[in-house]
Write a structure and sequence with these properties.
58% of the residues lie in helices and 6% in strands. It is mainly alpha-helical. It has a domain of 37 residues. Strands 1-2 form a two-stranded antiparallel ribbon. Bound molecules: zinc ion (ZN). The site of zinc ion (ZN) has 8 residues, from helix 1.
């Protein structure tokens, strides 16, 4: 074992070194994951909004 704190990217089948201590992934994958995360969070927001609207509609229908 080396004394250096070189980390390897956590991405499956990727063995690139991670430059930053704070990052779990290599530069390429951290960028990919950030993009994915933003996409997922956007989709989640829309889905939650849609679910809330549907839920409200459902409640209103039940009351009518
Ligand atoms: Zn990687």
């Amino acid at each position: 074992m080396k004394a250096s704190k070189t980390k390897i990217c956590k991405y499956p089948k990727c063995s690139k070194e991670v430059r930053s201590d704070a990052s779990l992934f290599c530069i390429e994958h951290s960028r990919n994951l950030k993009n994915n995360f933003e996409t997922v969070s956007n989709v989640m927001n829309k889905a939650m909004f849609a679910a809330a609207v549907i839920g409200l509609k459902g409640l209103m229908k039940k009351k009518e």
